[in-house]
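2024-03-11 09:14:02 DEBUG pipeline.ingest accepted 1 chain
2024-03-11 09:14:02 DEBUG pipeline.ingest length=411
2024-03-11 09:14:03 DEBUG pipeline.predict start
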Amino acid sequence: MANLMVKNKAVDLSEPWRMLLFLLIAQLMVAFVGRSIGPLGVLIGEDLSLTKSQIGMLPAALFLGQAVASVPAGFLTDRYGSRKLLLTAAFCLGMGFIVMMLLGQFWAVLLMVMIGGCGYGSMHPVTNRGIIYWFSLKQRGTAMGIKQMGVTAGAALAGLILLPLGAEYGWRPVLLSACILLLVSGCVSYLVYRDSPEQEESNPAGLVAFYKSMFKMLKNRALMLVSFSAMGLNGSQMCLNTYLVIFAYERLGFSLFLSGILLVISEVSGSLGRIAWGMISDFLFNGNRVVILLIITVLTAVASVTLAFIPNVSFWTMVPIVVIFGFCVSGFNGIWMNLASELVPREQAGISSGISITLGSIGAVLIPPLYGYTVDQSSSFTFGWLLITGMMVIVLSMLSYLAMVIKRKTL
């Protein structure tokens, strides 16, 4: 009898990690399709004769859709749980991109990317709430980092698989295949994932109470500071994802294959960063997320200013710079998601994530086109990378103030 109880307890303890695996797969597949806009941007740009600024509008449209959908997705997740929304998000993104790849007019492509972005952005509050309910405070940094690793891993796979295949066979049929795979994975996630018993027993607020909670959160100074800081980090991350291939291909003279490999290295580094930063936060800083964001911001500024003034160098010289850049600016998201979710009561984690993602997405909407416009006007990537450095200075000041606000609350 005692052995049976121990066995059941072991099964119970393993359940959160099993659910985390399903959340990771869902996040990875959504990123594999949604973030393919970055590596495929150079091919889409050649096909549609786009400027650098217009190429930057592609991820901007994706994140505009994310900004539009994140708060409603957070509300629906709080109300109906994560399981149903996993399927909905996958189909919204997959069908949006299938229609997009059939179109030839730039405005129509942007519209469908934005609609697909609604599904891409919905996945964040959906999976975040699953993490909040399945894991304790001391485990969430690591669990969220693992789950968020799916974003950069998916983007890395897009650069590793979709870019060379797209160069060989065309970006449209390759993207179609990826979308079909996403739809299948969405159905599988719906069948195998289940919500935490605590999440199922929670009593979510109605629409009126939701809006009251939302406006109350907009007055939460700490949540607003971390969300505005995420604007700069998010926008810088998308600049790296969108323009690294173009920078290496056009400015440094690397082949398209090697340029794509740099993006893969960046995304793999970001994947490792999402786990590593979460573990560092949990085990070395006792769950302190702000100090990790401060470190990330400083290192990102150093990496961006290095790229701004780097001469023509070899591929292997670029590798360590890209590793540090990706490890930081593509690795911050798990810490951000945790902090945004932990600043409010647990039952409001979906709404909190949605609001923070909406505000953070504004940076990904505005900064990549601004980066592209800067490069177009100056005919140089130098000022584009310096734009990111300037953003990090602003983010650093906001995070320093956030640290003081949190310290006052704990006194």
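2024-03-11 09:14:41 DEBUG pipeline.report The radius of gyration is 20 Å.
2024-03-11 09:14:41 DEBUG pipeline.predict end
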